[in-house]
Structures are given as structure tokens and as C-alpha cells.
Design goal:
182 residues; 8 helices; elongated
Length: 182
């Protein structure tokens, strides 16, 4: 067992715990989070359509991706998933604020993307479920395919914010869906 193996494992587990925590905040309100209602409101405020669907995508991606990273299970796929969350955070929240975190910029999400990329292309190590279960796929290839799928998801997410129905259409849809009075 090398020092690099131990340090890499600890890094993977810390990043996994942080994403698990963020997902838990969004899903259950744990760790001082707002829970599901706040997550749906967040996606509504960012103009995602439909907001419940995209709230689920972000919350479950963080929650499940974090658990998988922590345990080193399906590691290249989990790394790609958390990269997708960070990429969307950069595009929808942080990019307009510049690079530096002091102004709310994308510095921190970019660091998380760099770390998750390293995890995604590397062997998850002997302290992982992938190793214990004998999952020996070629990580760079699986990671690359996973990134392509995630990027398509991010593009679709961004497109939903562009093609969201206007408030007038939404009001009309609400009127049509209301039960009629007898």
C-alpha cells in the first residue's frame, strides 16, 4: 500500500461525502439544506423546465454520485455524473460572476471538475467496491463515454431553459387543467 493510494482514496471519499451531503440537502433537508421544496424552487428560479424533473436530476446525481464515489463503486460513471452537476452549476450560476470564488465565480466547481476527472480516469484503488467486486473495466474509456452522455444531458438541461413556455402559455395551461365547476 503506497501513500499515493491512501491519499487518492481519502480524496475520493471526501469528494464523495461532499456530494452526498449536497444531494442530501436537496432531497431531505439534511445538513441545513432546504429539502425537496427548496430544490424545486431553485430549478424554477433557474428557469429549468419541467422544474421537478431537473430538481430530481441534480439532487439524485449529487446524492447517488456522492455515495458511489465514497465507496468507489462504478467510479468512472460516478465521476462523470458529479462533473455534469458542476458543469451545469458553472453554466447556470457561476460563469456570469467570473472565475474567482470571492465573487461567486466558478473557481470551486472547476476544481471539483478537475478532481473528479482525475478520479474518473484513474483506477479507483484497492479500497473501493470496484476493486472488491472485481470490476476492471478500462476507466478512461468508460469515463469518456459517461462524459459524452452527461454532456448531452447538460445540453438538454440548458436547452430547456431556452425553450421554456412563456408565462402566457403556462397561464393558459393552468386554466385548461383546472377542474370545471358543475
Amino acid at each position: 500500500m503506497s501513500v499515493v493510494t491512501v491519499v487518492f482514496t481519502v480524496m475520493r471519499m471526501i469528494i464523495g461525502l461532499l456530494f452526498f451531503g449536497h444531494g442530501s440537502q436537496k432531497l431531505f433537508g439534511w445538513f441545513e439544506g432546504g429539502g425537496w421544496p427548496a430544490t424545486v424552487k431553485m430549478t424554477e428560479n433557474m428557469k429549468f423546465w419541467p422544474p421537478n424533473f431537473w430538481a430530481g436530476v441534480v439532487a439524485f446525481s449529487e446524492f447517488v454520485g456522492g455515495i458511489c464515489l465514497f465507496f468507489g463503486f462504478l467510479t468512472p460513471i460516478a465521476a462523470a455524473v458529479v462533473i455534469g452537476v458542476m458543469l451545469m452549476a458553472i453554466l447556470k450560476v457561476h460563469a456570469p460572476k467570473g472565475l474567482w470564488n470571492t465573487q461567486g465565480g466558478f473557481e470551486f466547481p472547476l476544481v471539483m471538475i478537475a478532481a473528479a476527472t482525475l478520479i474518473g480516469v484513474s483506477d479507483p484503488g484497492v479500497y473501493s467496491l470496484d476493486h472488491a467486486l472485481g470490476i476492471t473495466w478500462p476507466n478512461p474509456a468508460v469515463f469518456g463515454i459517461s462524459i459524452l452522455v452527461v454532456v448531452v444531458g447538460v445540453i438538454l438541461g440548458v436547452m430547456t431553459t431556452v425553450t421554456q413556455p412563456s408565462p402566457q402559455i403556462m397561464n393558459l395551461a393552468d386554466k385548461l387543467n383546472r377542474p370545471r365547476r358543475p
